[in-house]
């Protein structure tokens, strides 16, 4: 089974927390054979730490607009 997400993908965890994938793990071998679910170490900014999540608890972050508005441009430029 191939991992669905890659290093540096921006994702949503715990319903409303945005994080970044810092490491992906293949599913561990199961006692009955085959592999288990892949999991990921994700840095969640609001928690200020890295936490591990199974793939089923991770959602892809969907960008809602194509361009930065004026406030976002100002923030981006620093």
Task: Write a short abstract of this structure.
The protein is mainly beta and 78 residues long. The chain has one domain.
Which bin fits the share of residues in helices?
A: 10-25%
Multimeric state of these chains?
single chain
Largest sheet geometry: 5 strands, antiparallel
Shape: elongated
Broad structural category: mainly beta
Question: How many β-strand stretches?
Answer: 5
Report the radius of gyration as a whole number of Å: 16 Å
Description:
With 78 residues, this protein is mostly beta strands. The chain has one helix at 70-77; strands at residues 10-13, 17-25, 39-44, 49-54, 59-60. It has a five-stranded antiparallel β-sheet with strand order 4-3-2-1-5, with no helix packed on it. The longest helix is centred in the C-terminal third of the chain and has 8 residues, at 70-77.
Task: Describe the secondary-structure layout.
Elements: E1 10-13, E2 17-25, E3 39-44, E4 49-54, E5 59-60, H1 70-77
Antiparallel strand pairs: 1-2, 1-5, 2-3, 3-4
Descriptive labels:
mainly beta, five-stranded antiparallel β-sheet, single chain, 35% strand, 78 residues
């Amino acid at each position: 089974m191939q991992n669905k997400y890659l290093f540096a993908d921006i994702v949503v965890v715990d319903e409303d927390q945005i994080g970044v994938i810092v490491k992906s793990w293949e599913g561990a071998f199961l006692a009955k054979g085959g592999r288990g679910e892949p999991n990921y170490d994700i840095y969640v900014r609001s928690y200020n730490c890295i936490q591990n999540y199974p793939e089923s608890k991770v959602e892809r972050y969907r960008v809602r607009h194509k361009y930065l508005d004026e406030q976002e441009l100002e923030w981006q430029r620093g």
